[in-house]
Amino acid sequence: MFHISNMCQQLLDYSNNLHTAIFHTNWYETSLTTQKLILNIMLRSSKPFLFSISGFYDGTLNSFLSILRKSVSYFMVIISMK
Hints:
The chain is mainly alpha-helical. The chain contains 3 helices and 2 strands, in the order H-H-E-E-H. Strand 1 and strand 2 form a beta hairpin. InterPro entries: 7tm6_olfct_rcpt.
């Protein structure tokens, strides 16, 4: 589960940096057609790319840590009942 969350987090980080990376290229030196294509890519990359695992779990490290904390908490409750 950690590996899946880690890969999803890396993809999220890459997608967040894509907009800035495209902006810092020499897009203004390209043809007008290419500039329009780059603008379209920048608009689409401005939204974060999120994975949804099983429809209720976002594939980020924060979500993984939240599930891990809850699991440990439930485990400690079960242990304390014995």
